[in-house]
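Format notes (please read before filing issues)

Several people have asked whether sequences and structure tokens are stored in separate files. They are not. Every record keeps both together, in the order shown below: the sequence lines, then the token lines. Line labels are part of the format and must not be stripped during preprocessing.
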Amino acid sequence: MAGKAKRMPSKSLHLVTPAPRPERKPRGWRACAMRHLRSQGLPFIVALALSVPAFFIFDRRPPAEFSSGKVRPDKVEAGENASIQWDVQWRRDGCDAHATSVLVTDKGIVSELDGRWMTNLHDGDLSRDFHVSWTFLPGTVQYRATFDFECNWLQRIFPIRVEAPPVAFEVTASQTLKALPQLLKQQP
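Then the structure lines:
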């Protein structure tokens, strides 16, 4: 390092000093509350706002359990009325139920009954009267019902669907239809 001279720092040091801050005025309780809300309350509010709909989405427990059913009378004449009765056990209260029911013959023919009907369930049993059309041929028929439960506002869009156990019963030929050929022969 013979040929190069060392550079020595200059004797005058330039120090950077921060600009003076303006004096802060003391803030009131509102400013303190807003700081606290931003730091701790806002995440809580967001978590709460997201958890309530999440609970409604994942709350899919069936509110009722259908154990068995019976049709009275056991043998129904075509064109007559009958009644079905299920044993129901409630698991939770406060749910509206809409039901759709169909009759299915042993040949696979489906007949919808009265469209959608609303019911008020309670522990014990649920019974409903229905009409067996005179067009049913003699044989075995199953009564099938599907219940759509609405226990919260989100389940009005996506209801909880519960299938009741199908109940089989016998349909016999209508006495009126049996007598129809004789009635037609008697007419002039």
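For reference, the curators noted about this record: The mean pLDDT is 79. The radius of gyration is 38 Å.
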